[in-house]
Specification:
It is built from 13 helices and eight strands. By secondary structure, it is an alpha/beta fold. It has one domain: Alpha/Beta hydrolase fold, catalytic domain (Rossmann fold, 3-Layer(aba) Sandwich), CATH 3.40.50.1820. The longest helix has 17 residues. It is globular and about 45 Å long.
């Protein structure tokens, strides 16, 4: 498959789980856990279906509940996600698979490895967030992100309103919204985001996350501010971790923490890469490592 194609299944509890699929139809399966606030359309930005096909990978990118085209699930927790992924694997006749967690998707990928170890053969963590109970890791986040995380935990209705305002801004303000966004980015992300196709794909991730409203994305963000519900020491699958040292979205302190506590982790840190540039500039290396 030269591009990512939309698909869906019904889960045992009746919810619809939507996903994108690309790469080689009978290749090694890789389940990608998208970032926050984002959705499966992130695949069009940071993954490459043709490259996955060349490398023998079948890439599957599900929307979490209430995100994109997937049905909302009230009261969900991070540790509920492995059940949805396992149901998807059964529907697709996958005996085992690798998982890749990007940014705020890292706890979901690691939860799959911790709670469904018989299914997960390897884990990739790409610019991944670490548990935020550590005050130093929380303090390392940018001030706007710290505010959003606090609101997601203590005042979700207010954050939903802010997300709605931001959604309208991305649809109506054009260049003004883009200029404000670019001003806060480090290089090399700023240069990449000046390319219209990348900027539009980036904005589409947030817009699609809010396809059915903002409660799903706000809940998704809020779960990062709570305990994840599992012990990282129980992740026994091999973990490959990549992190850019210029990353301001998820500072490199998070990647170094994860590398220090995960039992079987091989970490690579890039001095000149940031949050977005890392997957765009090193996609073949990342996908190739997970394919092997």
């Amino acid at each position: 498959m030269s591009d990512f194609e939309p698909r869906e299944i019904r889960l045992p509890d009746g919810r619809m789980l939507a996903y994108l699929e690309g790469g080689r139809r009978r290749g090694h399966p890789l389940v990608h856990c998208h970032g926050v606030p984002s959705s499966s359309v992130e695949a069009h930005l940071t993954l490459n279906a043709s490259m996955a096909d060349e490398l023998g990978l079948r890439v599957i990118v599900p929307d979490r509940p209430g995100i994109g085209r997937s049905d909302f699930q009230a009261g969900r927790r991070i540790v509920d996600w492995p059940s949805d992924v396992s149901a998807l694997a059964i529907a697709l006749s996958l005996d085992s698979f690798a998982v890749l967690g990007s940014s705020g998707g890292s706890p979901y990928a690691l939860a799959c490895a911790a709670l469904a170890p018989e299914k997960v053969r390897a884990v990739g963590i790409l610019g991944g967030i670490a548990p935020l109970e550590d005050p130093l890791l929380f303090a390392a986040m940018s001030a706007p992100l710290r505010l959003m995380l606090r609101l997601s935990r203590w005042a979700p209705p207010l954050l939903r309103a802010l997300f709605s305002l931001n959604l309208r801004a991305t649809r109506g303000a054009g260049d003004r919204t883009s200029d404000r966004m670019l001003a806060s980015l480090p290089e090399p992300d700023r240069s990449l985001m000046q390319r219209p196709e990348i900027r539009n794909a980036f904005i589409a991730c947030f817009q699609d996350a809010c396809r059915h409203g903002t409660r799903g994305p706000v809940l998704d963000l809020g779960l990062l501010a709570h305990p994840w519900g599992f012990d990282l020491a129980t992740v026994k699958a091999p973990v490959l971790l990549w992190h850019g040292e210029r990353d301001r979205n998820v500072p490199v302190a998070h990647g170094r923490y994860l590398a220090s506590v995960l039992p079987s982790c091989r970490a690579t840190f890039y001095t000149e890469e940031a949050h977005l540039s890392l997957p765009l500039n090193h996609g073949r290396q990342i996908l190739g490592a997970l394919a092997s």
